[in-house]
Amino acid sequence: MADEPVFVAVVGFGYWGPNLVRNFARNPRARVTWICDLDPGRRRAAERDFPQARASASVDDMLRDAQVELVVIATPISTHFDLARRALEAGKHVLVEKPLTAEVAQAEALVDLARRVDRRLFVDHTYLFTPEVRYLRDLVARGDLGQLLYFDGVRINLGLFQTDHDVVWDLAPHDLSILLALAGRPPRSVVCVGSSHTASGLTDVAMLHLDFGDQLTANVHVNWLSPVKVRHVIVAGTRRMVLYNDLEATEKVRLYDRGIEVTDADAQRRAAVGYRLGDVLIPHIPAREALAVEVEEVVACLRDGATPTSPGELGVEVVRVLEALGRSLERRGERIDLD
Questions:
Q1: What long-range pairs does 247-252 form, CB within 8 A, spacing at least 24?
Q2: Are 330 and 201 spatial neighbours (Cβ–Cβ below 8 Å)?
């Protein structure tokens, strides 16, 4: 069994689906046998680019194929729950594009179903598989940053405007998955403010604030209306701080030995702040496509019993935070507690 390839079906061949198909097709331990899409033009493109796979409009026909072991879902968020449920009930393992579902109750139901039918449920939080985020997680795990103080993320660009979800549900899952992985716990409260500038009424500019307790806070700016594309994250700890700029061709990560030292200054117990200005380290992090790493891990989970980086349970937590952010947005920035 361990030597047999994982036979894969991909549902959705629009924006992200072709990237998933390409990486599964290149993996020597996987075989893409089905590509499902309702659009005839996309099916023709799938037949042209991946002739080894059967292009079809019928998910039902694909699910009846006993050879298919893993179903990969890259369709609009509103369809995730039904497609993933049907695939699990058909005895397939499932990988779902982020976010897992449109509601936390749906996400929890999928995790429960996967347990009952003894199938694996994965969520495509792609940034968790980048070499840079893995480096950040190692730094935190080793304590090299000290106690985490804050996370500052900016994820902005001009478009792509979505039609069935707002900018928070579109872009924030990337930073939320990174945050949850680094913090090792969910936030205790969230605040979200934003605005819409189109007739759709969907929020296209938003500011997110998350409080994790123990002095750790996070701020994330997501935006579809920026004239420039920015993808950077600052993670600050009591010992060191890190800048991760995903748009740099090389040297994406810089590790700063900088911070402050607080001491009691005088009899009135006022705090004196000193500054520590140490070296800047640019670590060598070999480049790899995140999706290729993710595909390797998914196959290893199914064939070798590996532990997933992004299981369904993480998908539930991300959707839970997204729901809370949505409630805060509707209530004009009201603080929402996650108990």
A1: 250/287, 251/282, 252/132, 252/285
A2: no
What CATH number has the domain spanning 6-124? 3.40.50.720
Residues 6+ apart with CB under 8 A from 290: 126, 127, 128, 129, 130, 131
Spell out the residues 6+ positions from residue 229 whose beta carbon is closer than 8 angstroms to its own.
Answer: 156, 157, 158, 247
Q: Please give the average per-residue pLDDT across 249-266, as a whole number.
A: 81
Q: What residue segments make up the domains of the chain, in order of their start?
A: 6-124, 128-285+320-337
CATH topology of domain 128-285+320-337: Dihydrodipicolinate Reductase; domain 2 (3.30.360)
Residue 210 Rama label (left phi>0; alpha psi -120 to 50; beta): beta
User: 317: closest CA among 188, 148, 141, 170?
Assistant: 188
Model confidence pLDDT, tens digit, residues 262-302? 666 555 556 667 777 788 999 999 999 999 999 999 999 99
Of 155-159, 222-226, 278-282, which one has max mean pLDDT? Answer: 222-226
What is the C-alpha separation between 52 and 34, in angstroms, rounded?
9
What is the rounded average pLDDT of the residues 296-323? 98
Distance CA 201, CA 146 (A): 42
Beta carbons within 8 Å of 230's beta carbon, 6+ residues apart: 154, 155, 156, 157, 247
